[in-house]
């Protein structure tokens, strides 16, 4: 294994792990948004005047953003994988793959806490009444 392969394994391991984690985050965010949308719809069908319903606009905006992020990070992952395999002839076997996997695992563990926090915020925005509105008002006050 030469120095170029080690640099490629470290760089691509870090980038690909982050892109994979963000793609999985986006997929989970899509599922959470759809679940919140379905729950809101059932509440609205049950009683239109029932308090504590999350507005559709919030859920749909969050769903659109999650879909766009998922497409973006998935596309960047695909482009990067094709580039690494074609231009640098990097394969995921042997010591190259072991080094890539180790770096990717360390990077995923490093970003896992931020990912978990992001999922908790998305859960609150899609399932807790008025959380998204309070968050938006706080953000506008800070500007």
Structural class: mainly alpha
In the predicted model, the low-confidence regions spanning at least 5 consecutive residues are: none
Helix content: over 70%
Distance between the termini: 51 Å
Any idea what the shape is?
A: elongated
Could you state the order of secondary-structure elements as H and E?
HHHH
Radius of gyration: 20 Å
Largest sheet: none
The mean pLDDT is 88
Number of strands: 0
How many H/I helices? 4
Name the beta content range.
Answer: under 5%
Could you characterize the architecture of this molecule?
The protein has 4 helices and no strands. With 143 residues, the protein is mainly alpha-helical. α1 runs parallel beside α3. The longest helix is centred in the first third of the chain and has 44 residues. The radius of gyration is 20 Å and the shape is elongated.
């Amino acid at each position: 294994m030469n120095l170029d392969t080690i640099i490629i394994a470290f760089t691509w391991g870090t980038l690909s792990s982050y892109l994979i984690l963000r793609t999985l985050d986006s997929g989970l965010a899509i599922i959470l948004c759809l679940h919140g949308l379905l729950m809101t719809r059932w509440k609205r069908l049950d009683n239109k005047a029932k308090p504590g319903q999350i507005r559709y606009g919030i859920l749909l905006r969050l769903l659109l953003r999650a879909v766009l992020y998922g497409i973006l990070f998935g596309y960047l992952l695909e482009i990067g994988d094709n580039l690494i395999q074609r231009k640098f002839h990097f394969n995921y076997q042997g010591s190259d793959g072991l080094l890539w996997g180790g770096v990717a695992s360390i990077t995923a563990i490093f970003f896992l806490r931020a990912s978990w926090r992001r999922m908790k915020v998305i859960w609150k925005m899609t399932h807790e009444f008025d959380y998204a509105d309070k968050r938006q008002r706080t953000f506008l006050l800070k500007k």
